[in-house]
Amino acid sequence: MKNNSLWSDALYRLRRNRAAMLGGFVLIILVICALLAPWIAPYSYSFQDLNLGASPPSSDHLLGTDILGRDLLSRILYGARISLLVGFVATGVALVIGVSWGIVAGYMGGRVDSIMMRIVDVMYGLPFIIFIILLMVIFGRNLWLLFGAIGAVEWLTMARIVRGQVIGLKNQEFVLAAQAMGVSNLSMFRRHLLPNILGPIAVYATLTIPQVMLLEGFLSFLGLGIQPPMSSWGTLIKDGVESMEEYSWLLIYPGITFTITLFALNFFGDGLRDALDPKTSDN
Amino acid sequence: MIAIFLKRILLAIPVLFAVASITFFLIKIAPGGPFDADKAVSPQVLKNLNEAYNLDASNWEQYVGYMTGLIQGNLGPSFRFPGRSVTEMIATGLPVTFELAFYAILIALVMGVFLGVLAALKRNTFLDFIPMAIAMIGICVPTFLMGPLLVLIFGINLELLPVSGWGQLPGDKILPSLTLGFAYAAYIARLSRGGMLEVLNQDFIRTARAKGLTERMVVIKHAMQGGLIPVVSFLGPAIAGLLAGSFVVETIFQIPGLGRFYVEAAFNRDYTMILGTTIFFSAMIVFFNLLSDLAALWLNPRSRDA
């Protein structure tokens, strides 16, 4: 190899990890399907054929229809948009909060650091799932609130990881040199620290997405997340459970889709971690 | 040890106080009162209700009143179930949820530690890959899917076990406990595998082997004590997760526990019930986190003397 930078090295290792590559491949297909849902879905997600009712998979409806005669495949495709959107946006929110918090705490050190990390410790010990439910009950089940609420919960670990990384970096020569040149704190964070911790951030972000999607599924399953007529995979599973005795395909296909996605994300995330940090790949 | 313990308890009190206050005021700013029912109530009835539940007083007075009650263990009346207090409802639901959580943790520990230790000892063999594949399934199949699938297979198709209930039919506790326990078994399997691998490479294990101990003694007496510390630290946060899991499992299997009460209260906007259970859950989680941290400290000989 001519170029031995961290990223090209990591890419090389990632390419050799079959499970991770398969996971990545599945993810790309899923994202494309979700983006193209309005064009590739055979029916609209709300199109009802009431005469049909719940019908098992057939050539007209590849995955069958639900009780209202809506095409399940189309609903899964449209549901992918919401589920993946929640996964990515809420992770983004968590990323922004966690990275800023961790960089400031780690770089500032001293009292600022100990107060900031104390807050993280305390928040770790609280039942956040309950607060999300509380927020959804109080302010109504709003998609943007859901993003914010989930993101506000998932940033804690990110803050810890970033802080640890920054503490490791801040006594290195290039940071000291930048300090000597009088670089402002903000550009120190942006230009010197952030690029050096992108690896761990990328890994943890990939592993946060499935957690966020699980959380959304959990809330939607309880009826506290996405509200009709919108549907996520969580709401599809909820609907499937209600009618699984007679129409088991309504539970099984959304369930399989959701599980495959989580598998893909976890495999890809694990692979990325091993590729970027070969030290941890042994256990 | 005792100093750490006292410090942590002293920290927990203001935290719980803050949780109670924040929750109280969050609920106060919520739009819509608890008596905005589907059918309108006459103004006189509404006035009497508000008076009976002290909703006419200023927010500050209500807050002071609530906090005074809280210290005495009185969480106020339920808005939706007249004549029942929140404390009473928690007392009814708690034993059920505790029993469910206990079985789940038991299943998770036995299954998880067994699979994890096995995988670590037989590293990179068939007996490592299979348990870890099972663990991956446990992590990727959420509780709200695992529960219904188990019901579909064992309850509806095979008709082996009851599909719902708790303590009414023989065997109806099996599926809920398995559902809740399986996800944690997966995490525990991964953690104990990682922990064991780390310990098995250390010098004191080589010493133990060198002095001629049987492999079983080395594993059980020496390696597991250190290798399972991550599992012990995980148990505290796991309790918080179990709670969320109990919301789902109790809803799926129609179990009259605290989790289902909470979800119902959330739907009914039974504000005193939400407030009371939130504070109660927080107190429980803070307590269990404390307990598991202390256990992990105690198990680790390096920190025992500190």
Automatic annotation (TrEMBL), chain A:
Residues of the ABC transmembrane type-1 domain: 80-269
Keyword Cell inner membrane carried by entry: yes
UniProt keyword list: Cell inner membrane, Cell membrane, Membrane, Peptide transport, Protein transport, Transmembrane, Transmembrane helix, Transport
Primary localization: membrane
First and last residue of the signal peptide: none
GO cellular component terms attached to this protein's record: plasma membrane
Protein's GO biological process: peptide transport; protein transport; transmembrane transport
Membrane topology value: Multi-pass membrane protein
Transmembrane intervals: 20-41, 82-107, 119-138, 144-162, 201-226, 247-268
Domain of life: Bacteria
Stored CDD domains: TM_PBP2 (cd06261)
PROSITE patterns: ABC_TM1
Matches recorded under Gene3D superfamilies: MetI-like (1.10.3720.10)
Record localization: Cell inner membrane; Cell membrane
Similarity section: Belongs to the binding-protein-dependent transport system permease family. OppBC subfamily.
Name under which the protein is recorded: Oligopeptide transport system permease protein OppC
UniProtKB/TrEMBL annotation, chain B:
Main location: membrane
GO biological process: transmembrane transport
Ranges where the ABC transmembrane type-1 domain occurs: 94-292
Pfam families linked: BPD_transp_1, BPD_transp_1_N
Transmembrane segments: 9-30, 100-121, 133-154, 174-192, 226-253, 273-299
CDD domains to which the protein is assigned, alphabetical: TM_PBP2
Keywords: Cell membrane, Membrane, Transmembrane, Transmembrane helix, Transport
InterPro entries to which the protein is assigned, alphabetical: BPD_transp_1_N (IPR045621), MetI-like (IPR000515), MetI-like_sf (IPR035906)
Membrane topology, as annotated: Multi-pass membrane protein
Compartment(s): Cell membrane
Domain of life: Bacteria
GO cellular component: plasma membrane
Family of this protein: Belongs to the binding-protein-dependent transport system permease family. OppBC subfamily.
Protein name as annotated: ABC transporter permease
Organism: SAR86 cluster bacterium
